[in-house]
Amino acid sequence: MSLKSRFGPFGHIGILVLLTIYFMPSSVFGADAGNCLVCHKFPGLSRVGENGEMRLLYVNEEIHNKGVHGSVKCEGCHTDITKIPHDPAKPVDCLVLCHIIEPTSEQKFSHKSVATSLEDSVHSKKDKDGKEKPFSEDMPTCKDCHDDPMFRPLAFVKKVRPGVAEDALGRCRVCHSKEAFIDKFYNHITTRLHKSRSPLNIAEACARCHDDPKLVARHNLSRAAGSYGQTFHGKAANLLDESVPDCLDCHVPKGKSVHQMYKNEDSRATTHKENRGQICNSVDCHPGASKKFSNYQVHAEFDKGKNPVIYWFTTFFIILTGGTLLPLMAILFLDLLRRLFPNASFRRRKEKQ
Amino acid sequence: MKRYPTIKIENGKKYFFRFDLDQRIQHIILAATVIILVLTGMPLKFSETSWAPYLNTFFGGSKMSPMIHKVTGAIMLILFAYHVIRVVSQIVSKQIFPLKKEGKMNIGEVTTILIKQPMIPNLKDAKDIIGLMKYLLYFTTVRPDGDEFTWKEKFDYWAPFWGMFVIGLTGLVIWNKVLATQIIPGELINLCLIAHSDEALLAALFLFIWHWYNVHFSTSVFPMGTVFLTGYLSEELMVEEHYEHYVRVMTKEGLAHEILPPHGGHKPFCDKPLPDKPDSPSTTTAAEQPNDTLQQGGLSS
Description:
The structure holds two protein chains of two kinds.
Chain A: H1 3-7, H2 11-23, H3 37-40, E1 46-48, E2 54-56, H4 61-66, H5 74-77, E3 101-102, E4 107-108, H6 112-119, H7 142-145, H8 166-173, H9 179-193, H10 199-210, H11 213-218, H12 224-228, H13 232-238, H14 247-251, H15 276-280, H16 308-340, H17 346-352
Antiparallel strand pairs in A: 1-2, 3-4
Helix pairs in contact in A: 8-9
Chain B: E1 7-10, E2 13-17, H1 21-45, H2 52-58, H3 61-102, H4 107-115, H5 123-136, H6 151-175, H7 177-180, H8 187-217, H9 227-230, E3 232-234, H10 235-241, H11 243-252, H12 293-296
Helix pairs in contact in B: 1-2, 1-3, 1-8, 3-4, 3-6, 6-8, 10-11
């Protein structure tokens, strides 16, 4: 018996409607007040920009709703869009006043306080006297380090999945009954308490600038991310160890936000000569380490000008290795050749003549 | 201590004493520790490569693997200490003490004893290297005769000796960095890391290419040399690598009439007449080199 004979000509449509409703993202009924998903729900939606770069404009609603900005409406950040269809949208300004109320102050929420501490840090666009730094456009803004999971490359199968801990959710359910509320607050709290990125991820984020040869030269920096990779910390990070210190563990003052990093010369900086020892000998790291210990050069480079001792020491070992192995390899190779013609010799030929 | 006969005859074949049981056990421990240390250390040195995480995980990941590395390193250092103590005590008890009893103890005599130790490089080694280069570059068909320990073996001894000292010392510093930096400046840790890993790479390449070629992969011994297990070297290899010593041992054991002619391409043994060898070495035929198939197929002059 076929479906057709059973449901009649409308059977197909009925199933189609049911399937559509079933697969319809839940929030089509809620958060998307501006009806943006009418267009943006299509996975192929994309556009080639003026610089030839293709931009994916697809919004995966499920990912968006589970993300930190899940309860913010599209217009909350894309303030320049007032009509549909809209003109090319401007990049989002993260400092905009949101349409949500921050529950402890009952004020409209904004990331402005982050910008204030960033302006005071080593990554500020302006120097101490308030003057614009040279190449200030290189200084990182919010989106150079942070991204919304929604905009990450489409990879649905991942080795490492942050995931929601079901047992933890169970504890929430003891008192709270509304699932959406539980999800939201669980995410809100855990994304801040968990190390959401592995040391390797952090180092890679910093490396985008701090291992970029042009940028490093322009600002007279060292290739800090590369030299970190040469330390045991960096090597363990490469081997996907999650417990080793990354850039932030040493460069962010304890108890402060990651935006409050300062220059080495700034006395507030953890990496200032006077403070350095206290990072290394923290109880979690190398307790009992002396001040001399912290003089270990984490960012030592193989560079004649910057680190002559390390340069010549390494060069000695390169010469020793080459000087030992190359002659021996040559003898080994000649030995193999000699065994092909054991009785041949130049001298003998001469003798025969 | 067990006596080892200088020549052991099994199934009509002669085998020459090289290493006693103690030395063989030392070598096996050294070989095993080196291999484990290389396998647990290299994933760190080359941590950015694709294979490193797999090898590292195989040894228990970043918690277990360093532990294995440290314990193995400690075993190697204990072995090193044992070896040095044993060698020194043997020289003292067997050579310097009797000298003292005779009342001939002075700096000159002691220096002579030390210089004449079997593993100390000497002028003959330099001559042998030059001779070998002439042979390898087809300037002559005469290969140098080796003494009890050839320059290759001395190299194989002193390279790990220096390596163990450098890698062991720097390894101890890195292991106990908090303690070490109570005294030494932190910048020295950088240098220790460079020395430790670069010297280790050199040692690994040296042993796994040069040493293994000479003792296992060379066409004369392929597929495997057995002297590190049995302690005795076959007559063919003895003739090929240690002819000078071979003739001396055979003469001493009263087997002078059974001395084989030198290996293909050898010059005649000048100091002593060889009764069994009427031909000059240039006419050495393939039949006299039964162990070397490649040479049999080679050009004859």
